[in-house]
Amino acid sequence: MPPIITIRHLNKSYGEKQVLKDINLTIESGQIIGYIGPNGAGKSTTVKILTGIIQEYEGEVMVFGKNLKENVLEVKSKVGYIPELAELYDLLTPREYLAFIGKLYHLSDSVIEDRSRKMLDSFGLLGNIDQRMDSFSKGMRQKVLITSGLLHNPSIVIMDEPLSGLDANAVILVKELLQALKQEGKTIFYCSHMMDVVEKVSDRIILINNGTIIADGTIEDLKAGTTDSLEQIFSRLTSTGNQMQRGDDLAAAMNG
Fold this sequence. Notes:
The protein is α/β, with parallel strands linked by helices. It is built from ten helices and ten strands.
């Protein structure tokens, strides 16, 4: 089988600023990919290209063996996207919102209802299924967002800081969910700044900085014989200075 995602010579600029510089990636089915980098490194732009939100770029992106630009709607129908910010229709209930999302993917009423109830129950939100979401906490909204991104049973799941606002128990649940999705053969493209989670769940970690991939491999590959954590590796490869010293300088500045 061909790779589920192939990216060749991907470049993207906003005016004179080039945010992606000759990105080349091959991703196989059933992998959890940790895609990490500092703010402004190009992570979100990559995600928006893979989800079809950004369609103006240079290079070639193949998903399911098909050119993304030429088959964007077909590809979108098989991709689940869970962004960081839960921009929901606040005046709707979870049941109403998920029914709306399900219809966009041409799911039947019975499938939407069944999946919505089961997934919300797993998140402890079944009792809130008919409550308007304008009263929901950030964590509750994030759980509805995750449910909506998985409702159509996508083959590829793209997550951009999906744990934002979740409590410790919900974080554990999502980590278990990622492993279950992997066992089903789904591909997870996971962007996060939570290095400990990325290190634990990812089969492969890709580090991007200033629009360029600077590291790509398993956590064992990245450690390369050191005892460093992923957080330490990240800091060493992307930092422009000593972060510990910078922390001390900030504390001193507060007391100056």
